[in-house]
Amino acid sequence: MEKKFRKIAVLTSGGDAPGMNPAVRAVTRKALEEGVEVIGVLGGYKGLIENTLVPLSPRSVSNIITNGGTMLYSERCPEFKTEEGMAAAIETCRKNNIDAIVAIGGDGTFRGATDLTRRGIPTIGIPATIDNDITATDYTLGYDTAMNTVISLVDDLRDTCESHARCNVVEVMGRDCGCIALNAGIASGAVAIAIPELPFDEEAMFEKIKSVKAAGKRGMIVMISEGIPAIKGGDYCEKLTARLNELLESRFSRLAHIVRGGSPSLRDRLTATEMGVLAVELLLKGESNVVICEIDGKLQPVEINFALILDRMYKNKLKDGDLDMFSAEQIDEMRAVCAKRKAEIERLYQIARDVCK
Ligand code: ADP
Description:
Layout: E1 7-12, H1 20-33, E2 37-41, H2 44-50, E3 53-56, H3 83-95, E4 100-105, H4 107-118, E5 123-127, H5 143-164, E6 167-172, H6 179-187, E7 192-194, H7 202-214, E8 220-225, H8 227-232, H9 236-245, E9 250-255, H10 266-284, E10 290-295, E11 298-303, H11 304-314, H12 328-355
Parallel strand pairs: 1-2, 1-4, 4-5, 5-10, 6-8, 6-9, 7-8
Antiparallel strand pairs: 2-3, 10-11
Helix pairs in contact: 1-10, 2-3, 5-6, 6-12, 11-12
The chain binds adenosine-5'-diphosphate.
């Protein structure tokens, strides 16, 4: 059923990611093009509670396509999960005649979107996190830029590793998802890659390093995903570097928040623009409580509840009753998505083994 919206709001929430600004720009311009007013909410859901809003025009989003971070700012907001917080957010929407919302962020943001939709404010999510850890979508905004930042920084480390016949252990962000480490590791020729999704054989890595060193390799990069210290202990990378140092001179670099910033890549600008436009089109057609996903190269809406439970299934975090609301076909579909994602990781890991030496 189509509903005539006169005003929508756009917000960015959770961890920031390059691509958020291009998405804000696309949502704003597409909505205005359709004759719908646009309000920017400052500071994510906190801004909804505190009524910190700015009207957006085609010109107020000029030039932001090249900027990392988010012009609408992003803050964590635990109050949004409370009854009082939600009531205040709904009151802001009512007072300002906000008919619908586009919420740009990660899975926490989508949970908030579901709550808003349930309370009468139709909301659509756009996935943005450098970690690419939202199982329902093959792509999240910021991922490509983050990987390009990693390979650029690691290329610089390689120069100096090569000069000094040195090894550099590099830890990269990704929480419990090894996508950045795996892909950027392959692209920067890391001699070893450790990700939380697959067992990491430290002894086999030492044997490999000994053998490539004996064969004349001078500079080496060992790429460790953030999820590995989470499993093996917080100072795992430091300990690994100390152990490697007995074999060849070794250093440790943690590429943390530097990887979250920077000008969005072509991929992020383009995908953000397409996702932003589709989010507005779907809202105006009466859809809500969905997240825009990229599946096999095509953008399509996925029910937020389906996306959140699929994510839990993939991360082995399903709780009793989680699957009760889904049909057997939907559960099969979830299992197929999980299997596809795992197979893709295994395929790339094998490529890394074969080629990076
Ligand atoms: P991300 O969206 O990147 O996963 P967070 O998990 O921090 O980041 O979530 C962003 C915001 O979404 C939170 O600060 C909070 O305001 C809101 N949020 C998170 N979880 C929920 C929830 N279960 N219900 C309602 N709102 C939530």
